[in-house]
Design a protein that fits this description.
45% helix; zinc-finger; Protein FAR1-RELATED SEQUENCE; metal-binding; MULE_transposase_dom; Znf_PMZ
């Protein structure tokens, strides 16, 4: 979570699940989005209460865990206590109110205005979603209030006083990374809500939360893997799109390509190129709205009044039109945010400032794999342009492959020789895991009492998540049908009393093995490596069952 925050912690959505139910624990979540626009969890918290002091402590603790790096934007529901805590702990952070929560609050608080032919809810949503100019917004809001005689409504007065945190004319310069408020928090809370009841044991709650987080991470990896398998689809062949496809993640490239497609319909209404900073008025065919765009060809900068880059992190169609007018055919580096690139996750745990911790080995593998892919895909593409470069790379590839195999073999041998199995610890671990699973199953059954119980004796089967797991399941099935045991035997293990290994010199790893005297039911398979003999066997007894051993 710390590593995720260091890469994508510019926008954070915060929510507490118990604010709508007094029967649940005070469960808080900090959520963001990654370079594929998928939700990621930064932190979770169990709170004693929801006072100003508790929120201040929570936000300070969160920043301390995240190397004291505050986000650019902090989303939450409308709450004066949270607003005060954010302003005190994160004074440089833009606090935004979730517009989606405002709509639901309006339906709940003013539900009598949503019945029949009353158009209040429709007009209220229009004030949130449609009006981008301040004068237009204020005029429409006042007309709505006067039309429905709501001048004395306290809730609406408070909402309007905080308009800078949710109304489009004021928040279009606040970076949101495309997040829609706290909706991702609500999705997470729905997965843990049944375990937040006070009567549920805290250990079972924590186990369930860990399972939810692991499932989400697995889904995130699947989405990232699938995105790498797909080649970008070009609607128009253009240098700037080629650059974007090589740089942006799949989802962001699709959004950028839509802007580039609209740019084809853009035209310049007026232009003033007298000074070093040019001023343009840009519009789109069949659309009345016009936008002011400022561009500097010398510094290769561009800024549009729609503020899409400042809000979402990629250029709009109006800015692309002005770049084209200034004969700039590629995106300047300043307009490519690292958080939206394919390899935004190349940062490793050792590079997080002020943090010392141990993380999963698979994270390092994934990070190294992503970085190497980017380099070598480009190299192979360039080498394929002519026969000579192809042959050079092919020759170096064989030599490089041998060196890599030698290094991996050496590392594997060291790991094998240092491995010391501990049977007692293994059995204890398996026992604890089994107990945890049984307890979790009891809770799952109690929380889903309303559902129809499955038939007695029916075995539940977990569906494999992807093609790799399917292959592993098949392999495990074959191994279970033909059970085998692996033993590593050194010379000291071959005692004279063991007739099975008489005549075998274990000190010589390449001497032929004498199979005489072995039980006819044995299915022997030997591998010799570094002075060890690895013996695989399964023994069928007279009653038809299979036993394992020597």
């Amino acid at each position: 979570m710390v590593i995720d925050y260091s890469q994508f912690g510019d926008v954070v959505a915060f929510d507490v699940v118990s604010r709508n139910s007094i029967n649940l624990r005070h469960f808080a979540s900090f959520v963001g989005c990654n370079n594929l626009s998928e939700p990621i969890v930064f932190a979770l918290a169990l709170m004693y209460d929801e006072t100003a002091e508790s929120f201040q402590w929570l936000f300070k603790t969160f920043l301390h865990a995240m190397s004291r790096k505050a986000p650019k934007t902090f989303f939450s529901h409308q709450d004066t206590v949270i607003a005060k805590a954010v302003s005190l702990v994160m004074p440089g952070t833009s606090h935004a109110i979730c517009a989606w929560n405002l709509k639901h609050a309006a339906n709940r608080i003013l539900n009598h205005l949503g019945k029949g032919d009353c158009s209040f809810i429709k007009e209220f949503k229009a004030c949130i979603n449609e009006y981008e100019e301040e004068m237009e917004f204020v005029t429409s809001w006042n007309a709505m209030i006067n039309k429905h005689n709501l001048c004395d409504n306290v809730w609406l007065q408070n909402v309007f006083e905080e308009k800078e945190k949710w109304a489009k004319p004021y928040v279009k310069g606040i970076f949101s990374a495309g997040m829609k408020g706290t909706r991702s928090n609500d999705s997470l809370h729905s997965e843990v809500r049944d375990h937040l009841r006070a009567e549920v044991d805290i250990i079972l709650l924590l186990r369930h939360i860990e399972k939810v987080i692991n499932d989400r991470r697995h889904k995130e990896l699947e989405i990232e893997y699938s995105s790498r398998l797909k080649l970008p689809y070009f609607k128009i062949k253009a240098p700037i799109l080629t650059q974007a496809s090589e740089t942006y993640a799949t989802m962001i490239f699709q959004l950028f390509q839509e802007e580039h497609e609209e740019f084809q319909s853009a035209y310049i209404v007026n232009r003033d190129e007298s000074g070093p900073c040019h001023e343009y008025t840009v519009s789109i065919i069949d659309k009345e709205k016009q936008f002011k765009v400022y561009g500097n060809p010398t510094e290769q900068t561009v800024s549009c009044s729609c503020r899409k880059f400042e809000t979402k992190g990629f250029l709009c169609s109006h800015a692309l039109k002005v770049l084209d007018a200034m004969d700039i055919k590629y995106l300047p580096d300043r307009y490519i945010l690292k958080r939206w690139t394919k390899y935004a996750r190349c940062l490793t745990s050792s590079e997080v400032p002020g943090q010392t911790f141990q993380t999963d080995d698979s994270l390092g593998f994934s990070s190294r794999y992503q970085c190497m892919c980017q380099k070598y895909v480009r190299l192979v593409t360039r080498a394929s342009e002519c026969e000579e470069s192809y042959r050079i790379l092919d020759k170096i590839w064989l030599e490089l492959g041998k060196k890599v195999d030698e290094v991996i073999q050496k590392q594997t041998s060291i790991s094998t020789s240092m491995a010391q199995p501990d049977v007692e610890n293994l059995m204890t671990s398996i026992s604890s895991i089994t107990d945890g699973i049984e307890s979790e199953n009891v809770l799952e059954k109690s929380s889903k009492a309303r559902a129809k119980e499955s038939k007695k004796g029916q075995k539940s089967k977990t569906q494999p998540r992807n093609c790799i797991e399917k292959g592993l399941r098949k392999k495990q099935k074959v191994l279970s049908e033909q059970p085998s045991v692996m033993y590593s035997l050194s010379g000291a293990c071959a005692q004279s009393g063991n007739a099975m290994f008489q005549g075998v010199d274990l000190s010589n790893p390449i001497e032929p093995i004498n199979y005489e005297g072995m039980h006819p039911g044995l299915n022997p398979a030997f591998t010799q490596e570094q002075g060890f003999i690895t013996y695989h066997t399964s023994l069928a007894s007279s009653n038809g069952s299979q036993n394992q051993g020597l």
